[in-house]
Specification:
Layout (H helix, E strand, L loop, with lengths): L1 H29 L6 H16 L5 H67 L1
Helix pairs in contact: 1-2, 1-3
């Protein structure tokens, strides 16, 4: 489960980066006829990143973006479940402590009652 959460977090972090790169690619494509040297460098870097992650088309990027958005909600729900598990563990610990206290008093009371019975039976004889 930890591996899944870590992987989802990595995808989530990568998702923000993909969104920036996607915006950069589209912005540069729109102005591709008049690119200066800096913009050509940015376009080359964006293409390299896209190639590295096997993004060949705008549809690939859109699919990845949708996947990352769903992962974001999944990570949020996992975090909420983790918080709920911590609360339930605390409640369980409190119940156990309460049971120990109640059982402890119950046993102490039984021991006192047995001792009193022994005293009464000793005094009668």
């Amino acid at each position: 489960m930890i591996f899944g959460i870590r992987k989802a977090a990595e995808r989530f972090a990568f998702g923000g980066y993909v969104s920036l790169v996607t915006a950069e690619i589209f912005s540069i494509k729109a102005n591709s006829k008049r690119l200066d040297t800096m913009e050509q460098v940015k376009l080359a870097a964006a293409r390299e990143i896209a190639d590295k992650h096997n993004m060949k088309s705008e549809d690939d990027i859109a699919d990845l973006e949708e996947c990352l958005k769903s992962l974001q909600s999944e990570v949020t729900s996992i975090k909420e479940l983790s918080d709920e598990q911590l609360k339930l563990k605390r409640i369980s610990d409190l119940i156990t402590a309460n049971e120990n206290i109640v059982e402890g008093n119950y046993i102490d009371n039984l021991i006192r009652a047995w001792k009193e019975r022994d005293k009464i039976s000793v005094t009668r004889t």
